[in-house]
Design goal:
The chain is about 35% helix and about 25% strand. With about 400 residues, the chain is an alpha+beta fold. Strands 5, 9, 14, 15, 16, 18, 19 and 20 form an 8-stranded mixed sheet that branches. A 6-stranded antiparallel sheet has the order 8-17-10-11-12-13, with no helix packed on it. The longest helix is centred in the first third of the chain and has 115 residues, at about 80-195. It is rod-shaped. InterPro entries: B30.2/SPRY, B30.2/SPRY_sf, ConA-like_dom_sf, E3_ubiq-ligase_TRIM/RNF, PRY, SPRY_dom, TRIM8/14/16/25/29/45/65_CC, Znf_RING.
Length: about 400
C-alpha cells in the first residue's frame, strides 16, 4: 500500500502586510502604535522602554535608522495606524480559523489513512506469521528427512567400508604372501644363475617353479605367416615345418620371411625363460628377435644376427659363432647337438649353453631391451632334425621337422 504524504501548513506564511505593521522591537503587531519624526512606528510601550534605557545619554535615537532626538520626543498614538492594525488582526483571525478548519480536515484524512495502514499492517503480520508457521513446519520435516537420510548414508558407507576393507585386507594378505613367495623364488633363481655349475642350475631350475599362480606355462607355436616359401607348414598342433624340395605357394603376408628359411614363434617371451634346441645335420641358427624384425629386406639385413633386432648363435658341426648387428664373434666350446638358451627379460641377459653330460656356458650377452622377444630358428639346406623343449624329453620325429615346447616363468 502506498502512503500518501501531505505537507500541511497550519498557518499561512506572514505576508508583507504583517511585516509593515509589526514593531521592529517586539516583532509583533503594533499595540498603541506611535510614529517618530523620522517616520518609523513602534508600540508605545516598546519605544518608551527603549528610550528609558537611554536617559543617561541625554539623547534618544530611533532603533531603526539611529536618528538622534534631543530632547526626548513626546509620543502620541497614531489613530489611523491603530485602526489599520485592528483590521489586520481581524483578517489574521479569519485566516487562522480557515487554516484550523483545513488542518482539522487533513487530520481526519490522515486518520483514515492511518486506519487503512493499520489494517494493512495487521494483514501483513497475519500473513507473515502464517508463512513463518508453514515454513517452520516444512523445514522441520526437511530437517527430519535429511537427518534420516544422513543416518542411512552413514550406515551404508560404514557397511561398504567394512566390506571393502575386508576385501582389501584379504587381497593384501594374498599379495603379501605372493610377494614373499616371489622374493624367495627370485633369490633361489639368482643363486642358481650365479653358480658356475650350469648342470646343477638346469636340473634345479624347474624345482623353483612350483607356484602355479605365478607360473605361466604354454606351448610356443611356430608362426605360419613368418615361414619362407620353401617351408611347408603342418597344422598338427601348429608346431611343425618341413623344408621342401620345391617352392610352396602361399598367400602373401607381411610377416613372412622372403629371403631366408626362417621361422618365428607366435608367442612373445617375458620374464625368465629357458629352452633347449636339439639338432642333427650340418648346422642350425638358434636366435631370439624382436617381434618387429624386418621380413622383406635383403638377404643380409633380414637374417638373424645381421641387424640390431636379433641375436643368434650359429651351430656348425665343428664351430660356434655369435651374430649381432652384422658383427661376428667366434665362440669356443665343446660341440653339442643340444643348445640351451636362457633369457632374463628384466635383467637383459641372453645366454647360450652347450648341453651334454655337462652344461657349458658358450656365450653371454647383455641386451638393451625395448620390446618383447620371440624364439626363432634358421634352417640350413640339408637333412637334419630340430627339437626345442624346456628341460623335458621330447621324442624325435621325421627329419626336417621342428617341435617347440617352452615354459615361461615370471
Amino acid at each position: 500500500m502506498k502512503i500518501r504524504i501531505f505537507r500541511a501548513h497550519l498557518f499561512p506564511a506572514p505576508s508583507a502586510h504583517f511585516e509593515k505593521f509589526s514593531c521592529s522591537i517586539c516583532l509583533d503587531l503594533l499595540k498603541d502604535p506611535v510614529t517618530t519624526s523620522c517616520g518609523h512606528s513602534y508600540c508605545m510601550r516598546c519605544i518608551k522602554t527603549h528610550w528609558d534605557g537611554e536617559t543617561g545619554k541625554r539623547t534618544y535615537s530611533c532603533p531603526q535608522c539611529r536618528k538622534n532626538f534631543k530632547p526626548r520626543p513626546v509620543l502620541e498614538k497614531n489613530v489611523l495606524l491603530a485602526e489599520l492594525v485592528e483590521e489586520l488582526k481581524k483578517t489574521r483571525l479569519q485566516a487562522a480559523a480557515a487554516a484550523a478548519d483545513r488542518c482539522y480536515q487533513r487530520i481526519q484524512d490522515r486518520q483514515k489513512d492511518m486506519k487503512l495502514l493499520q489494517q494493512d499492517l495487521e494483514a501483513i503480520n497475519a500473513s507473515a506469521d502464517e508463512a513463518m508457521e508453514d515454513n517452520e513446519k516444512m523445514f522441520t520435516q526437511m530437517i527430519h528427512l535429511i537427518q534420516k537420510r544422513h543416518s542411512d548414508v552413514k550406515q551404508q558407507i560404514k557397511s561398504e567400508k567394512e566390506t571393502e576393507v575386508s576385501r582389501v585386507k584379504e587381497l593384501q594378505e594374498k599379495l603379501e604372501q605372493e610377494i614373499r613367495d616371489l622374493k624367495r623364488k627370485d633369490a633361489e633363481l639368482k643363486q642358481f644363475s650365479d653358480t658356475p655349475d650350469h648342470n646343477q642350475f638346469l636340473h634345479s631350475y624347474p624345482s623353483v617353479s612350483t607356484l602355479s599362480e605365478s607360473t605361466h606355462s604354454s606351448i610356443i607355436d611356430i608362426q605360419p605367416e613368418s615361414r619362407d616359401e620353401s617351408l611347408k607348414y603342418s597344422r598338427v598342433w601348429n608346431r611343425k615345418v618341413t623344408v621342401m624340395g620345391r617352392e610352396q605357394r602361399y598367400p602373401d603376408h607381411p610377416d613372412r620371411f622372403t629371403e631366408r628359411w626362417q621361422v618365428l614363434s607366435k608367442e612373445s617371451l617375458t620374464g625368465r625363460c629357458y629352452w633347449e634346441v636339439e639338432w642333427r645335420g650340418s648346422g642350425v641358427v638358434v636366435a631370439v628377435a624382436y617381434k618387429n624384425i624386418c621380413k622383406k629386406a635383403d638377404l643380409h639385413n633380414c637374417g638373424f644376427g645381421q641387424n640390431d633386432k636379433s641375436w643368434s648363435l650359429r651351430c656348425d658341426t665343428n664351430s660356434y659363432k655369435f651374430f649381432y648387428n652384422n658383427t661376428t664373434t667366434n665362440v669356443s666350446g665343446p660341440q653339442s647337438s643340444r643348445i640351451g638358451v636362457y633369457l632374463d627379460h628384466r635383467a637383459g641377459i641372453l645366454s647360450f649353453y652347450g648341453v651334454s653330460k655337462t652344461i657349458t656356458l658358450l656365450h653371454r650377452f647383455r641386451l638393451r631391451i625395448f620390446s618383447h622377444f620371440k624364439p626363432c630358428f634358421c634352417i640350413f639346406p640339408s637333412r637334419y632334425l630340430i627339437s626345442c623343449f624346456s628341460c623335458v624329453f621330447v621324442l624325435l620325429y621325421l627329419s626336417l621337422n621342428i617341435y617347440i615346447s617352452l615354459k615361461t616363468r615370471f
